[in-house]
Write a structure and sequence with these properties.
Number of strands: 0
Helix content: 40-55%
Structural class: mainly alpha
Strand content: under 5%
Largest sheet: none
Length: 83
């Protein structure tokens, strides 16, 4: 058997452990399921996509707004929740 070592963000690991526990799996068995599917299907077995929030145009607007706030131009407001 091979051993795999990796670094994972603490929050990601905690949430994954909670999901595995709810499914009755160990983290090791869940990762093995993923790797078996990856190897058998030669693809990532779920959709991988970028969050459109982080597109270059939106990031440029956000950077401009941050600069304005840092120079005292503009005003802070609470984040707006969008469904």
């Amino acid at each position: 058997m091979a051993q795999l070592s990796m670094r994972i963000d603490d929050g990601v690991k905690r949430r994954a452990e909670m999901a595995c526990e709810a499914l009755g799996l160990t983290m090791s068995s869940a990762i093995n399921i993923y790797l078996v599917k990856l190897g058998n299907e030669m693809r990532i077995p779920f959709e991988v996509s970028a969050d459109p929030f982080y597109n270059p145009e939106n990031m440029a607007i956000l950077e401009k707004s941050i600069k304005q706030l840092n120079t005292g131009k503009g005003k802070k407001h609470e984040p707006v929740e969008v469904d």
